[in-house]
Amino acid sequence: FPVLDSVARSSGIHPALLILPCTLAVSLAFMLPIATPPNAIVFASGTIRVIDM
Fold this sequence. Notes:
Blueprint: H1 2-11, H2 16-27, H3 37-44
């Protein structure tokens, strides 16, 4: 997260305000249909909705 730290510091805001939301978003990306090939295959079958993933 060095890039977010640099952006935050140059913008004059606390780095945690950018780093924490980004960390949560990256940590939960596995639930998206396009996150991994197996997820994409299961989603493409049409039996599971995005909200169920």
